[in-house]
Specification:
Elements: H1 2-10, H2 12-18, H3 21-41, H4 47-59, H5 62-73, H6 79-107, H7 110-115
Helix pairs in contact: 1-4, 3-4, 5-6
Length: 116
């Protein structure tokens, strides 16, 4: 996933020239959703890594686009505060989501926890 995440980041400038920010978010969310469904509903091993590749490609454009939009909309004197706040909120999901998914998986099942 991280290799494809990096590949997506490196190709992001070219992707910006093809799509608007709104369309890029819609495409990224769609690609990420497809990857999560592929991973969670997979019954054989070769499709799971493919799902993570798709997830990595889908998520690669989110943070740079969010931080760019934050710096465009925040007043100049508040750029650092706005970017720090948005980064803290966005990256805290990496800490919270494994705990949340693990808790749901304990109660229900692992496959259903990905869908929820």
């Amino acid at each position: 996933m991280w290799l494809w995440f990096g590949a997506g980041r490196f190709s992001l400038n070219y992707t910006y020239s093809l799509f608007s920010e709104k369309m890029l978010f819609i495409l990224a969310a769609t690609i990420t959703t497809i990857g999560f469904f592929l991973v969670s509903l997979s019954t054989n091993c070769p499709t799971v890594p493919l799902g993570f590749v798709i997830i990595g490609l889908g998520l690669s454009s989110d943070m740079p686009t969010i931080l760019s939009k934050t710096s465009q909309t925040a007043p100049v004197e508040q750029h650092s505060t706005a970017i720090g706040t948005v980064s803290t909120i966005a990256y805290s999901g990496r800490i919270i989501s494994p705990i949340l998914i693990g808790s749901i998986a304990t109660v229900i099942s692992l496959k259903l926890s990905w869908i929820v």
